[in-house]
Structures are given as C-alpha cells and as structure tokens.
Amino acid sequence: MLNLFAQSAHLEIVTGTAPDHDDVKKVLDDAKSVGIDRVVQVGISVKESQWSVDCANKFSTQVLAAVALHPNDAPLIEDLESDLEE
To answer: In 20-67, where does DSSP find H-type helix?
Structure first.
C-alpha cells in the first residue's frame, strides 16, 4: 500500500480549534482511514506557523509543520524573522 501525504493542509481553518483539540485528531483519523498517512500543515503567518509547529509537536507521527509567509504579506518578512527568533 502507498504511503500518501496531504502536502498543503490548513487544519487550523478546517477545525477552527487549538492544535491539540480532539477535532484535529478526528480530521487526522479520517484522513488515515482513506489512506493519507501524513499531513504537511502549512502556516502562512507567524500565528499560523506557530499553530502548525504546535500541531506537529502534538501529532508527531502524522503531522509535519511548514513555516511560511503568504506572498501578500512579503513586506512583513522582517517581522516574521524577528518573531521566529523569539
């Protein structure tokens, strides 16, 4: 059987919850039930990137975090770098 990844998930939008909420686990379990073993959770802002990292820490066998900044927010890159250093 293939190991499939969802390569650009936004679980924070789908669930509208904290990264350790049962709704996130349910979405991950549903994905696994149809053959999706791992999810790349993409943050597009500092806040969402932190959510992604927290989610990946909670569900380390199923979630990888991608820290990113949406292109529309490119002028904020210095703020992102500063926030990430903290």
So the answer is: 22-33, 46-58
